[in-house]
Write a structure and sequence with these properties.
This protein is α/β, with parallel strands linked by helices and 274 residues long. Helices cover 44% and strands 12% of the residues. It has helices spanning 3-21, 26-31, 33-43, 68-77, 82-88, 117-130, 149-160, 181-185, 190-196, 210-220, 256-273, and strands spanning 58-61, 137-142, 166-172, 175-176, 179-180, 200-204, 228-233.
């Protein structure tokens, strides 16, 4: 499977979901796509068939507002139906809401209240260790989310319990709803900060590169005695020049003209990669 081309195909599905529901955190959807694709189609032991198996891998979308790309992933994996998502997303009294809803297949945790995903993932990973299981736990956080104190409480606990079955990923696109992360609540040197909390830290220079992500995740699996965090340097709005690195695309529904341009850009990139 060509995962690079798939990431652009799923970006198109994501745009259609957002336009159908007239809502969505489009910028973060685009920046996190390769991370989700690499996890679900290469790294994790998770499928429709084993979704309730005790030996499955776990994924938590802590930056739960970037849900639309996750819907696209779950549909491609067979957990959900894409047409049903488009029909029901963001409608009254729907299960297809703008954040993860574990009443839907394939979703482990209701999230979106930022800062909770890592602590919950620590609990899951600790439980698996206590049961002598080999499963892995993955949690995706936004860089704006790191301003939450509960993230760092979770980071301390993960080190304390030597949770080498836990891998956190930071979608480091440097933009949040109110602007640049470093202007809102600066993170300084994230590598050194997580290192000081006792984590193994892997910097992914291009967090939208499937090759770099594959190497980083493979390396994380070899680390023993401590949790690993991937700092994935991504581009908010990745895939179309009208969105890339623009904070106003944090939450936005494209106009008809913008939709046509974005989809043309994404289709062209998908074709180039095939």
């Amino acid at each position: 499977m060509n995962l690079e081309a798939l990431s652009y195909k799923l970006r198109q599905d994501t745009i259609d979901i957002i336009c159908a529901g007239k809502a969505g955190h489009i910028g973060g959807d685009m920046s996190e796509m390769e991370i989700l694709v690499e996890l679900y189609f290469h790294q994790m032991n998770i499928s429709v068939e084993n979704q309730n198996d005790k030996d499955r891998d776990y994924f938590i979308l802590s930056k739960g507002h970037s849900m639309e790309s996750y819907y696209a992933i779950l549909a491609e994996k067979g957990f959900l139906n894409l047409d049903e998502i488009k029909e029901k997303f963001s409608k009254f009294n729907t299960a297809y809401i703008g954040h993860p809803n574990n009443k839907l297949p394939g979703i482990e945790m209701n999230s979106g209240s930022l800062g909770h995903g890592l602590p919950v993932s620590v609990g899951i990973a600790k439980g698996l260790k206590m049961n002598h299981q080999e499963n892995r736990v993955y949690v995706l956080m936004g860089d704006g989310e790191l301003a939450e104190g509960s993230v760092w409480e979770g980071a301390m606990a993960a080190h304390q319990y030597k949770l080498d079955n836990l891998c956190a990923i930071i979608d480091r696109n440097r933009l949040q709803i109110s602007g640049n992360t470093e202007d809102v609540m600066g993170h300084d040197d994230l590598h050194e900060r997580f290192k000081s909390f006792g984590w193994n830290v892997i910097d992914v220079k291009d967090g939208n590169s499937m090759k770099e992500l594959e190497k980083a995740f493979d390396t994380a699996k070899t680390v023993k005695g401590k949790p690993t965090v991937l700092i994935a340097n991504t581009i908010k709005g990745k895939g179309s020049s009208i969105m890339e690195n623009k904070a106003n695309w944090h939450h936005k529904v494209p106009t008809k003209e913008e939709y046509d341009q974005i989809m043309a850009d994404l289709k062209r990139k998908e074709e180039e990669l095939q």
